[in-house]
Amino acid sequence: MKANVGGIDRVLRIVVGLALVGWALTGGPLWAWIGLLPIATGTTKFCPVYPLLGMNTCSTKKDESAAT
Fold this sequence. Notes:
The model has no long low-confidence stretch (mean pLDDT 90). The chain is elongated and about 45 Å long. Helices cover 49% and strands 0% of the residues. The longest helix is centred in the first third of the chain and has 19 residues, at 7-25. The protein has helices at 7-25, 36-44, 49-53. The chain is an all-alpha fold. It is built from 3 helices and no strands. It has one domain (7-58).
């Protein structure tokens, strides 16, 4: 699996996921457990839906040898 979830996207996924799981733990609705998915995709840096949509939020690094 090639990483396709970048910096800000990754942080947002983890924060939103933790908020949803916290809500579920404190008596929120059952569907709030869906927060486990953004936590998983944020920590693994891979979202299985992104390749289907042709998306990638990872920044591309320039090849240093091409600069010279």
